[in-house]
Amino acid sequence: MRPGPRERLARGPLRRGAGRWPARLPSPHTLRARLTAGLVVLLAVSCAAVGVAAVVELNGFLTGRLDQQLRETGERFPASLEHGGTRPSDHDGGDGDTRRQTVGTFGARLVGDTVTNAAVVGSSTGAGAQNVPLAAADRRTLAAVPADGAGHTIDLTALDDYRVMAVQGRDGDVLVTGLPTEPVEATVHRLELVAAVVFGAALAVAGFAGAMWVRWSLRPLSRVAATATKVSRLPLSSGEVGLWPRAPEADPRSEVGRVADAFNTMLGHVEEALTKRHASEERLRSFAADASHELRTPVASIRGHAELALLHPGPVPQKVARALERIEAEAARMSEMVDDLLLLARLDAGRPLERLSVDLTRLVLDAVTDAQAAGPGHRWTLELSEEPVTVPGDAHRLHQVLANLLANARLHTPVGTTITISLEAEETEEAEGSTAVLTVHDDGPGVAVDVQPRVFERFTHGDRRRTEGVQSGTGTGLGLSIVAAVAEAHGGSVTLESAPASTTFTVRVPAGDG
């Protein structure tokens, strides 16, 4: 039966017999990847720190050596430029001062802020000191060097980067001596290249080795995850459940070992609880089946005696006749309930149904004809495909599904409601073929929102308060339960979509030749 007052459907369609959703795929950002990445990042930071420290220290050391060389050179070379001579033979001692200088040594003499002489020791044999044409910017740079006897790095556009040292001369002038920083820079750049290659190779090797180590370390945790995935795929909703997979034993002193032990303990508790639930369900099914079977005979006997009493030829008081009629009616209702309970118990036990080719189109026509006779005040419409739809199954049980759905629509909608029955074969992507889709739609008041989640459960009764014109139902609350059970027994499903003025039951059953 379809219970409940008329309220707007606030949830999606209910499904019975539908397949389980596939397990959600794991995130690509695994713990193993994060640990490996963290290890590599830490190692990269350490290598970068070591490399930077080594480069800075070497640069400082070589620059200090360059300053020491400048102090040892002193101001002899720029002082030799005082008389304007640049050749070794231009003045006394010139040959000795120039030849003792390192190739590339720069010298300049400043009077005030004006550069009077500037030369550099050439690389050619016998070339001596060569004049350097200084740009205006170079002259300003030299003039800005403080005469403090300390090393300073400057950039001369006519030459290159130089490390220079300025001191006061005897005549009040400023003598500047410089050495090129190119050897220092070349050594530092070479160290940077070697460090990059060595640290890069070390990072690659460490990353690979770290990934293997992390994988080996997390192997017990991966086994726990694999076991959890297997358990999540087990059908735990009903029936006998065997949680056979267990996480492998691990060192109980480690975190992973404690997780595995706790997980196995939890699985044991869940298995015990599900076993008790299954045993309780089996006892309940057995009781329902036995009770239904045992009640059939006394109920039939009560009904027979009532009918026999009503057939008595002698006069029967009106009250007694009325009582006998009620006994007969309730006995018939009880007999119907017993039959339904016995059917559900057999379906729950998994007893196979007949698998013959059933013309579902013919069953729909017969069921609608019977429903029209039982509910002439309703408007019945049919929407059938041109070709007959056949399914493999039990004709009697499928007819019971149709009869229950139509009776449910007739009993719980007011007179004048339009009930539309449609049947079609829907092609599916699976190799099995098509699916027979049967829908029963009405424009009645609808199903209560709070009843919809349990509408296919047994003994579900809706609110008995009805609007004017709705017939009072005498159902047992098992009709829709039988619809769902028979549909599932045929490998199909039944769904409900309900809102005020629009209620649709949809039954899907695999179609084909029986």
Task: Tell me the layout of helices and strands.
Blueprint: E1 14-16, H1 31-73, H2 76-79, H3 94-99, E2 106-111, E3 114-121, E4 129-131, H4 136-144, E5 151-155, E6 161-168, E7 174-180, H5 182-217, H6 219-232, H7 255-310, H8 318-348, E8 356-359, H9 360-374, E9 379-384, E10 390-393, H10 395-411, E11 418-427, E12 434-442, H11 479-489, E13 493-499, E14 502-510
Parallel strand pairs: 9-11
Antiparallel strand pairs: 1-13, 2-3, 2-7, 3-4, 5-6, 6-7, 8-10, 11-12, 12-14, 13-14
Helix pairs in contact: 1-5, 7-8, 8-11, 9-10, 10-11
Describe the fold and architecture:
This protein is an alpha+beta fold. It has eleven helices and 14 strands. It has a six-stranded mixed sheet, covered by helices on one side. Strand 11 and strand 12 form a beta hairpin. Helix 9 runs parallel beside helix 10. The N terminus is likely disordered.
Shape: rod-shaped
Termini separation comes to 30 Å
| Uncertain segments | 1-28, 86-96, 463-473
**Structural class estimated from helices and strands:** alpha+beta
Q: Strand order within the widest sheet? A: 1-13-14-12-11-9
SSE string, helices as H and strands as E: EHHHEEEHEEEHHHHEHEEHEEHEE
Give the mean pLDDT.
78
Total beta-strand segments:
14
- Structure annotation, total helices: 11
Helix content: 40-55%
CA-atom Rg in angstroms: 50 Å
Largest sheet: 6 strands, mixed
Strand content: 15-25%
